Amino acid sequence: MKKLYMGLDVHKEKTVIAVAEADTQKDPEHYGKCSSDISRLVSSIRKALKKYGVSKQEASICYEAGPCGFAIARHLLRMGYDVIVVAPSLIPTKKGDRVKTDKRDARKLARAHRSGDLTAVHIPDPADEVIRDLCRARTDAVDDSVRNRQRLLSFLLRNGHRYSGRSHWTEAHMRYLRELVLDDPVQKLILEEYLQAVDAGINRVAGIEDHMRTRMVDWERLPFVQALQGLKGFQFVSSMVIASELGDITRFAHPRQLMAYLGLVPSEDSSGNHRRQGPITKCGNSHARWMLVEVSDSYRYAPKVSKQLSVRQENLPRSVKELSWRAQKRLNKRYNRLAMRRIHPNKIKVAIARELCSFIWELAHLMAKEPERKAA
């Protein structure tokens, strides 16, 4: 059967198509350029297949993961095409190749796809991607809110006002800000504008969280999100972020694969008897990695099932509670040992986050088996 490999160099406006035939050593051919609009792109792919005399079942298409997302891959998969989205950082590149153009990139994709040198990335489910966008929108809203608060405090500091209370952004602090008297009416107007921005940011974050709770009710990963909240440090938002960013964790055959996917494994440059490990690779999903590192800081405290954690663990299977307690003891012991060696706190948190991946992987497999146990 004749086989055709197609490489798509996808951009916002235009897509460049290159074609490589299977049973030949010829270099891939540049087919042409078309609009990145999905309907026009599909039409161009059909014309290319017709030109080379192959059917859609005999063609294999690839393009790089990037800002254009997975919409093209999902559409082509629904139409019956064989499509993979490849990791850009793992595409083979020659050191001496200093010329980079769209045509060359498309041909390089087609050539590497024909030789089997490309690494496909996971295409998330549409429902997971919607909730992932919700979680990232909340993160953006929190960042904007923090910036607005910092601008307000900087404005007051420039004008000689400093709050002497116990903590900022409490009811007492907000009352102090609203009752503050400034020398010039324009400065009072500026203060009110900053206060309006702070209030709007708080309402924006709360609104997005309401949408997250509403959407979570019908989400297929709801049992895993609830089980993840049974682990120390995980609450509603962090659990939804991890579940939406990672998707189906059972696709990883071993916890080390999950650690590598999140970029939490150390880089290495070893030769002969000399072994040299460097900083973590930081490849893969940066949002999930950041959340895990933040959560890992809670394991520096002694193991304890607090009142809040016990509430979150209500109605959870006993196996999940046992895993949570085992994770607390293991990770706290690891944290203390690294601290006694005077390792930098940031490195300790990364090391704890890496081991936390193992417990999350085990939890995902536990929850995948839970429906089978209930059915039995």
Biggest sheet layout: 5 strands, mixed
What is the assembly state of the chains in this entry? single chain
Outline: globular
Total individual domains? 3
What would you report as the Rg, rounded to the nearest angstrom? 26 Å
pLDDT below 50 for ≥5 consecutive residues: which ranges?
A: none
The helix/strand series, from N terminus to C terminus, equals: EEEHEHEHHHHHHHEEHHHH
Strands of the widest sheet, in order across it, are 3-2-1-4-5
Count the strands?
A: 7
Q: Roughly what fraction of the amino acids lie in strands?
A: 5-15%
Query: Cα distance, first to last residue?
Result: 46 Å
Overall mean pLDDT:
92
Structural summary, described in words:
- This protein is an alpha/beta fold and 376 residues long.
- Helices cover 55% and strands 11% of the residues.
- The protein has three domains: 112 residues, ATPase, nucleotide binding domain (Nucleotidyltransferase, domain 5); 91 residues; 154 residues, no CATH class.
- It has a five-stranded mixed β-sheet.
- Strand 4, helix 2 and strand 5 form a beta-alpha-beta unit.
- The two termini are 46 Å apart.
- 28% of the residues are buried.
- The model has no long low-confidence stretch (mean pLDDT 92).
